[in-house]
Amino acid sequence: MKKTRSKYLIILFLIALCGCTESVNKRSNHLYAKVEFQPANYTYLETEHNELGIDEILKADLNKQFKKLESTQNLNHSNTYWLKVDLSEVNLPKTEPWIIASDNYTVNNLYYQTADNIMVSRMGEFDPIENDLEEINWKYHQFSVTNLIEGRYVYIQLRETFFNKWLVAGPIEVTTRSDFSFYSLVNYVATNNYKFRAVLFIGGIAFLLIYTFGIYFIYKDSIFLHYGIYLVFLLMYLGIKMYPQLSTIIFGHYPVLNHMWNEVTQVLLNFWYTRFVRKFIDAKNLYPKFDKAARYIEWFLLVISVLIIVTLIISPINTVLIKIVTLERLVMIFFAIASNVYIIKNLKDRRGLFILVGSTFLLSGSVAALVLGDIQYFMMGVMIEIFIFAMGLGILMKRREDEKTVLSKEMERVKMTALQTQMNPHFIFNSLNSIRSYMLRNKTNEASGYLSKFSRLIRLILEYSSEEHITLEEELKVLSLYVHIEQLRFREEFGFTIEMSGDINAEQILVPPLIVQPFLENAIWHGLMQKEGEKELVLDVTRKRGLLQITLRDNGIGRKKAGANKSGAQMKRKSMAIELTTKRLEILNSKSDLRNTVIINDLYDSEGEPLGTEVIIKMPEKKRNP
Length: 626
What we know:
By secondary structure, the protein is an alpha+beta fold. It contains 18 helices and 19 strands. The protein has a five-stranded antiparallel beta sheet, with no helix packed on it. A five-stranded mixed beta sheet has the order 13-15-16-18-17, covered by helices on one side. Strands 1-11-5-8 form a four-stranded antiparallel beta sheet.
């Protein structure tokens, strides 16, 4: 009851959380209206001389070149942009610092004046955080109204060497520290809806990651290892991308590491994705051209990773990094499209379809996020891709299990055949000895009749030895022929009777070939032939408790006396034949809970004298398919 109540409380909490988030979103616009932003006009200067400093910019010849921006323009990665912001018409309280917020740029410096010195506020991508609100918001500059250059200006130096950024026509917004703090907190809370979706998304990937590694440790299949590592890098990449505040907390004082993390994890994400795809579709055997190309791509991605790291260490503020990353993205897009076309033309099985559909959604989400600048498109592509690949891995697991089952059955069949092959030479050798004994005594007629029956028996043995099962009728026929040959061999006759329950159809029941023969041979050779007087051998076939039971009963001298009369070689030969047959029965009965498949009982009279031996063989009843 407590568990059920807790479950409902959790559900209500989630509903309330969603409702509160939605409520915050509805109220956020009203709260934003309470924040006062005032416009400040600016002029700009675009220059190819990126080494210019503020001292050169303030000189009259360059200062005269500043002009008004007529329309929004894309920033050239190779140039630097200087903004001259006029704050003379801004009417904000002068008792607290003023704030100019801006987007993230590679270089983002604001210059102001204190006494006779020009000071700088650095808020570029590779500058460590300095202001407290940066942990929940974007980059911003803080300055005092008393520290303006010429009493009215601040200069902003911008350069973007990586992302596509724009210089927007229109005034720059300025506000006070207190208003900006309020605005930042409202904005942070207003994005809770996105954060809630992000938590569910990241949690889903984390759960799948744990499950995938669990499957790998159970089956030791490298496919799950590769997919698990791919999910690790996916989690590392999206975790930072979807929570910029997290990157600020982790890498705020080491921004170069933040760029390394973002770019290298994305490249290694593609690396492990490629390795997983190769393994999943068995590219080496089914798609050899794709496999060869993918191996080159993997080396290419490793080289790209090294180049990114080296570039960021040596000189992070340059256009080399964007060229490297752009090259990698273009190559991967081309490779993805070409691979899909190749797999479509050479499709071998359903695994190729899963890769086609999953990679298409992943590629579409990646391109959309790149073009539109919204990571949520990539999230949607990843969600669909993960769902499709999860289905594919599930089907692959089932196929592997089916293959293992088939292989296990085949191994059992081969093992059974091997055991039969070991038994048959022993049986044939004894039969040949019987024919030889007639020939040595010059009884050619008897030898000829014996040989005729023996030839027939051999043909049946050769025919049945390769079979996994034969009918009970065929088994009894072989046993009768064998006993008849043994009766001809020994001068003293013995009786042989086959008894069978009326409810047993010998033509429909299947049994392993020659499964009874070693016990029959042992009863004749070591039980009956050493006895004087009447000799009887009875084979009884019955059905008991859903099992087929074959009972072989002789009235010989018993096992104890027979063991005392036999040599070591005879004992070894007998035990091997019985042991091999017992192993065959154990294999056949391994899928059931049946134990003690062979039971040997010594028979005694009331005075303790041996009356013979009884062998009981049990096996599951198997019927021929109609």
